[in-house]
Amino acid sequence: MFFHTPDWELALFAWINQDIQNGLLDVLMPLLSSSTFLWAASIALMAAGMKFRRVTATMIVGVALCVGISDQVCYHIKESVGRVRPYQSLPGTRYQDSGVWKTLPADFSQQKRTGSSFPSSHASNAAAAATFLYAALRRKSLWAIPVAIGFSRIYVGKHFPTDVLAAWAVGLAVGGVFVTLYPALCSRLRSRWMRNKLRT
Asked: What is the pTM of this model?
């Protein structure tokens, strides 16, 4: 599927990916964009939250389910859209390869016909998790997480701005629906568990 990238989006991408480049962001943004780092940080935060009784096991299961649904929705959208990522299509894009920053040359010619850029699963999953956790904890600071992750995905050349904007919309939608349904789901599972316990 052909995906038109308007001038305003190219300009915004260039500003985030290239114009504001500095040493601190070159270290920080890849970390925020790394799945391994994010999972490790999430597990550590959840463990700390459970220790101080601010996070429950039910909340952790809810976040995991919410993220899983968001990820699947993004996967199917990616498959149908097929937008090629900036670092595989746009000359001048800065990106990391094996920990080293590189720049696509000005005469770069796109080889890939389809890709997995739209939408950003990282940004969508973070938005879905933040929506679920905000409903439980009411901490506005949670919204900084999907914003930072979405920004990092553009900075490292993995996504265009509209990839991230669409991802936030998907994450908010998935999180909002899941927050509404989750209490009923928990209640039903609890009732079934109680019935099983009474039978044994």
From this structure: 0.88
